[in-house]
Amino acid sequence: MTVITDSDITAASYDELVERVLGGGFGPDPGTQRIAVAFTTRQTVRHAGRSGGYRNEVLSLRLAQAVGSCAVEPGGLPDSAVDDCVGADIARLLEHELLPVRVAALDAYLMHVLPHSPAAGARPCQLPAGSSLEKSRARAEAVVDLLDATPGRTVLVVGVVNSLLEALRARGLAYLPCDLKGGITEWGEPVRTDALSELERCDAVLASGMTLGNGSFESLREHALRHGKPLVMFAQTGSAVLPRLIGAGVSAVCSEPYPFFWLDGGPGTIHRYGGSERSGAAL
Cα separation of 158 and 192, whole Å? Predict the structure, then answer.
């Protein structure tokens, strides 16, 4: 019987993870694994009772039963990218010129060989059926429960989701909201656009998996590792990628594979890795 250990399914950095996949370190040769379906999902949302809204665009690639995804800025992905992916093998896509394509391909491969399961370290968490806002709040609670931080501490939030800010406020945590789109939060707070410049001001980091696709993730990971700060990722992008980096700066991940909570009003499942889950440990 083969026993899978943490070292078998984790890596020290994103680049090392890619290298190990290309070398067959996680399973079948990625050059033999071809994408059957490539598609984008676009949505605009304004939850009932909220003053503002947002837009999402996500590239998704299907490999066998698995779907890997990477969010992009709306309008930022050329139509040709989807055509490039269909029928292409994972090894080729891991060298694609567009970072979101490379991330989605890596996510699809890892979702295929290491699907979310207890054997891979996942703890399933059920999201109840409900409105878009109810499901957003339920997911936010599941994410913030992974964060070890006592009231009064400051959390850098990279990728502003008002439900997450609401959950942090309920716990008495201060936060620094950052998002490339800028703007203001539901409570009128300015959203900063340069997350990396705010790192020295925070005690912990709560970041979207979208940082994988825009190239800012590694700086966050290295800072958290160097300074011993908790880094909790909420991941629709790279939901199968980020759990493989726990222990290398990432302390916990809330993984949400496709289809995402905002696509369906019925019950759903997300998967949590690492973290405290209100264990009582304090930052």
Answer: 9
Question: Is the four-CA dihedral 104, 106, 109, 111 of positive or negative sign?
Answer: negative
Query: Cβ–Cβ contacts within 10 Å for residue 43, how many?
Result: 14
Please determine, for residue 197, whether its predicted confidence score (pLDDT) is greater than 50.
yes
Residue 32 backbone phi and psi in degrees, to 5:
-100, 0
pLDDT averaged over every residue in the chain: 92
Percent of the chain whose predicted confidence (pLDDT) is above 90: 83
Give the number of C-alpha atoms closer than 13 A to the C-alpha of residue 69, restricted to the C-beta side.
Answer: 23
Distance CA 252, CA 232 (A): 5
**Strand arrangement, sheet containing 174-178:** 123-127, 268-274, 252-255, 231-235, 204-208, 154-158, 174-178
Tell me the two tokens of residue 34: 């071809």
Report the first-to-last Cα separation within the chain, whole angstroms: 39
pLDDT tier at 1, thresholds 50, 70, 90: very low
Helical spans, DSSP H, in the chain: 14-22, 79-85, 90-93, 99-113, 132-144, 162-170, 210-214, 217-227
Measure Cα distances from 173 to 149, 156, 164, 277 in Å: 8, 10, 11, 16
Strands 37-45 and 204-208: unpaired
Residue 3 has what DSSP assignment?
P
Q: Is 189 helix (H, G, I), strand (E, B) or coil?
A: coil
3-state secondary structure of 154: strand
Q: Is the dihedral of CA 136, 137, 138, 144 positive or negative?
A: positive
| Global confidence as pTM | 0.93
Residue 250 tokens read as 């990432």
Q: In 3-state terms, the chain is what percent helix, strand and coil (to 5)?
A: 35, 25, 40
